[in-house]
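task queued by scheduler; priority normal; single chain, no ligands, no partner chains; default sampling; output format set to structure tokens
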Amino acid sequence: MTLVMQDGRCFVGTPLQIVHAMHAIAFVPAIDVVEFMQTLVLDARQFAGVDLTLPPAEEGASNMAAALVRQMVATGLAYRMPLH
């Protein structure tokens, strides 16, 4: 999948690969990918007024990333680029 953020940045891959790519370019202290997703949820609420929710960490990073990407698209924080 290709995910396009509101600022035009594109990320390609599975939801977890997309979240890892977002993490790689973020200006955050050394935190793991689960903590990064939790930070994204807090930032979405604080800066965009959007409430996102994640499944519990026990369900795994892949499930968390899939839920996060789905909600980012559903709330307009990002969109999926259609396949040609």
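post-processing summary
- The helical segments are 15-25, 33-48, 61-74.
- The mean pLDDT is 95.
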